[in-house]
Specification:
Elements lengths: L4 E5 L3 H12 L5 E5 L32 H5 L2 E4 L4 E5 L4 E4 L4 E3 L2 E4 L3 E3 L12 E2 L4 H11 L5 E5 L3 H12 L3 E5 L7 H18 L3 E3 L4 E7 L2 E7 L4 E3 L2 E4 L3 E3 L2 H5 L8 E3 L10 E3 L4 E5 L4 E3 L4 H15 L11 E6 L2 E7 L1 H4 L5 E5 L4 E8 L2 E8 L9 H11 L5 H5 L5 H4 L4
Parallel strand pairs: 1-2, 1-7, 2-3, 7-19, 9-16, 10-11, 10-16, 11-12, 18-20
Antiparallel strand pairs: 4-5, 5-6, 8-17, 13-14, 14-15, 20-21, 22-23, 23-26, 24-25, 25-26
Helix pairs in contact: 1-7
Bound molecules: flavin-adenine dinucleotide.
Length: 417
Amino acid sequence: MTPESIVIAGAGLAGATAARTLRAEGYAGNITIAGTEPHPPYLRPPLSKEYLLGKAAEDAVEVVPKSWYADNNVTLRLGSPVVSVDSAAHTVRFADGTVQAYGALLLAPGATPRTLPLTGAELDGVSTFRTIDDSRRLREQLASGGRNVVLIGSGWIGMELAAAASTYGNQVTLLGLEDIPLAAAIGPELGSFFRSLHEENGVHFRLPASAKDITGHNGKVTGVVTDAGELLPADIVVVAVGVVPETSLASAAGLEIRNGILTDASLRTSAPDIFAAGDAANAMHPFTGEHHRSEHWSNALNGGKVAAKAMLGQDVALDMVPYFYTDQFDVSMEYSGFPSLAAKTAPVIRGSLERKEFVAFWQQDGRVVAGMNVNWPRSIKPSAQKTIKALITARSEVPAERLADGNVTFDQLMPEP
Ligand SMILES: Cc1cc2nc3c(=O)[nH]c(=O)nc-3n(C[C@H](O)[C@H](O)[C@H](O)COP(=O)(O)OP(=O)(O)OC[C@H]3O[C@@H](n4cnc5c(N)ncnc54)[C@H](O)[C@@H]3O)c2cc1C
């Protein structure tokens, strides 16, 4: 049965994509998108890259043009989060107290940056990084260069912010708990590749190291003290130590929570007519047979589409191979696959790390389970990403020597149709 009205809690990529898909599928009922932030849905990946560097215009980060919502009869309630859900009555309550009925409800509240319980965390100049307002503020702070920037956290966001801060001509020091940045995600060899890239560009590392204290003067940050007792001078400190899936609403409504809002492959939660998508959802993945929570753009995009179709009663599953990308200095990287399956295996490399042009494949029992390409020429067809995804999906065994051998074309690697 098609629901009479749909409420979407979360004005981000997953929520806006769901609304767009509902209209594209011909859904004519009421759609309300409620968001905590005062801005219409926007894309977060540029916030730590081209937008932070002043290379992307304001409209380049919109999920859809601002006029799309009114043109498509979609009600945007900005700055008006859903504060409670009554799953039995099929109603939501907004922050202003208004209660609204829903036929189907999509929870797409994203994730919240982790904070650290450090003395000085409240000082002026110390922040986390998630929103367009964070990006605008940081751009203002970084743009003139010559400042001391300390980044706490050596994950993707910390590394991207380090690249942007250094590109602006600031002194950048990054500290993290790992011996090698990004090693948990892509292993020591490729983590070291990113470390060298940053060091070539003047970024300093303290690894492994944790922040013990943040020092300040007259309410403004002056430095970060590491667990080794070193005082790193700082005008700007960004805490980038990961995110926590936003589950409070779902949890209060009695939905099943496990590392996010638990869903089946069609993004149905444990409550009737309530769906979840994006960073907050921990969805059953048909490929691995396990729940998988992804904090990446393509998961929110495709999750929004799948949730919309599932709300309309279509038989759909979020079965895409997980994908993400990053841009740091002169390196553009794309990754597809299942890091949980690839973890702890050494990658097979085609191309050259020195030349910063390569494809890395991870295998499990001879099958490709993940792959990433760095600065791989787009003119080569089929593309590295298309090849990696096809190999993963086909589950066919490929000798490591063939993956590494540049004389074997991607066409020749492609599984039989
Ligand atoms: C700086 C940055 C860089 C990134 N770079 C990359 C990248 O290069 N590649 C990549 O693949 N991914 C990247 N990501 C991740 C990607 O942006 C996220 O996976 C994606 O934004 C998740 O979309 P979402 O719709 O689930 O959540 P969000 O984009 O977080 O949107 C959810 C929205 O819902 C709001 N909300 C929360 N609770 C409620 C409520 N109760 N009611 C109403 N609204 C609520 C939130 O305030 C938020 O505005 C990056 C993320 C960040 C922060």
